[in-house]
Predict the structure.
Amino acid sequence: MKQFIGFLRKEFLHIFRDPRTMIIIFGIPVVQLMLFGKVISTDIQNAKIAILDQSHDNITRKITSKLLSSGYFVLGEELLPGEDVESVFRQGKVKMVVTFGPEFEYNLERDGKADVQLLADASDPNTARILTNYASGIISDYVKKEKLQNIQLPDQINVEVRMLYNEGLKSVYMFVPGIMAMILMLISSMMTSISISKEKELGTMEVLLASPLKPIQIVLGKVTPYLLLSFINALTIILLGVFVFGVPIKGSFFLLMGESFLFILMALSLGILISTVAPNQMVAMFISLLGLMLPTILLSGFIFPIQNMPLPLRIVSNILPPRWFIVIIRNIMLKGTGIMYIWKETMVLIFMSFTFIALSIKNFKIRLE
Amino acid sequence: MISIQHISKSYKDVQAVRDISFEVQKGELFGLIGPDGAGKTTLMRILMTLLIQDEGKATMNGFDVIKDYKKIRNIVGYMPGRFSLYQDLTVEENLNFFATVFKTTVSENYDLIRDIYIQIEPFKNRLAGKLSGGMKQKLALSCALIHKPEILVLDEPTTGVDAVSRKEFWEMLKKLQEKGITILVSTPYMDEATLCNRVALMQKGKVLNIDTPRKLVENYSRKLYAIKSKEMHRLILDLRSYDKTDTAYAFGEYLHVTGKNDEVEASEFENFLLKKNHTKLQVFDNEPGIEDVFMDLMQE
Amino acid sequence: MNEKVIEVHNLVKKFGSFVANDHLNFDVYKGEIFGFLGANGAGKTTAMKILCGLSAPTSGDVKVAGFDIYKETEKVKRNIGYMSQKFSLYEDLTIAENIRFFSGIYGISPKDRKAKQEILLKNLDIESAKDSLVGSLPLGWKQKLAFSVAIFHDPKIVFLDEPTGGVDPITRRKFWDLIYEASDRGITVFVTTHYMDEAEYCNRVSIMSEGRIEALDTTENLKKQYAAKNMDEVFLKIARNTE
């Protein structure tokens, strides 16, 4: 036990003495969260739109003012019937054109049907989709409230499920779980794999191996400090999410922390596994960044919905631990569900942790290669 | 104390160690002498249980290097070829760390390291990475000794270290030997061979010869001349062009020269060189050193 | 032997309050083999970096190959060669590729390069290995090759930083044959080493200790001055005196 404590003390000294490590551990999470939350936010604000109102009646005017007062849109141009819609787009003046059919109110009252068309500039497909989503949301909201049924909305509008739990369509709600998964994954795996491969690179591992230290002591000694630090990280991210971005925690806080702990453990064992194959720090860093960070961003459902991916990528995403963790956090934080609804995902993470631990112990060499 | 029987080890396409056998007695200071690539490090790593040999058997204090590796790791102190301490920890932190790793404390075995540690103690709060070469070496030795090992294995401890620090280091080893520690040390510096009780001369994975430094020199059978003149480089070239010369190599201020056979007399060299207009010429019989022995064995 | 190729007057280099080079004064002549000795941390590396134009002195006048070290750094670099034990050649390039690369740096025309390359390969007796990766060569070959490449552009001075570490005694001596040849061609050789017997091969040696040059003379004179049998003793006496 004394051996182990001695080892831990050394690890903490390494961490606290290296400014780069400190920055990675405590700086990056905050910066990332701020970046994704504020700057790279996919929320649309003040997007210029054009209105082509062929009816100019009570309802179309109300809908228009609703759209423009939502904060998402500003009026870029008012078009007259017969004006060339395409040229407006080509000049890049507006991102979307909302066209109300002729005799909108009359049609609506008589047939319960009226035409509104949302034309979006799909050269930027993401923005286009978000714009049409927002607009159709606002229109259908208005229609619901005014108890006007059966307005025929454009076909391409489909209101996504997530709107149910994120009425404001705030992307930061989506990003907080994703960033948490990404940062924990990255820091836990990368830092442990680097700190172990560093000893290999500098030759100190040779001395450790030639000492009576057991492999399990070396591994635990490496993991424990990062387990603590990552846990602090998880807390920081959640606190920032709640107090800076107003993300709710509808479910149990303890369940959330418990699941985070499990995820950190999984990531750390993955880090050790990486270090057993990486001969030096550079390779460890490469594997962590390319092998973990990119797939986490692209394939875990963090940014791009998994159900929209082609089948092969969907299959790949299943072996990514963050994919399961993101589902878990979203459920706990945004939906407030309990363990009953996420036990499957939890089991997957437990299974992964054990696999990685088993593999790393098997791979950890008691001798030099 | 150390027993090596027919040890061989290859990496991919290089045979690093070929069929090496020898024994080191308790309390002996044994040297592995040879250039880079001789197989010294590989052999030491096998003994340190860090590598597994392809063939042969080796024991340290009776423990098998493969089966009983855990026991060996408790009784052996090791200093690898590269400086292998934590550069971002202080002198004291390094020492404490290695003490706890070996389940002991600095104070418990302070007697053993006192003479060495006392020299770096004034810098105990300095980061190990900021120490000079000689001090790093003393710290590494202190760390390797902290658990009072029965055997000390040192891989090229004096490489790249200046002559003064080297001399001090060997004095420290002698003192440790007096305390009953068996020491296996490797070095590429031939002159350090004379400081060992016995040495194995190694080259390209093979042992050329094993003996006491004195016997090795005594067994050198050839006649060796030391030759000097005012123009040393021309002297080498001229001697090499002489048909009675076998080898002519620079050794400090003299050349060491052997004839094609032992009948070649000093006067023959002298006459030849005088004809070549060499001035301040000195030619005399010379006692060989380990380096002469090594070079002679290399050429066989 | 009277043309000065290195002139150092009152060279001082400080790092903060630490004086790495304390008023160094020495000259090195054309074609000379100059041994630059000293204990670890005595300030050899610092001085060598300054002479190679890699670091500026705090004060003092330094001329290398006739050029001022402050103002004509580029010209200095063009006229010197450098080889150290740690880095000299790219291990993942072949011998010919390395030569082509270094020729390119020093602006040697392809025609000259080809001619010189042939001589080099022939001298080292490695014509057959022209297209082998440097990494696959034995250490002794690498060092000889590295030296030959360092003087490929016929510099006035070549700096050798512990060039013979770790090689066997025969290879080490063969390496010195190359140094002598370069010196015969008029190239000044400025060399550091931990082998004291190698100090004897130098025309003159300087011994540094704690940032100062404590002794500078021919080995013969130094041995007389310190009443020592060999350079090893001279070195030890100087180092012990200043402690």
Summary: The mean pLDDT of chain C is 88.
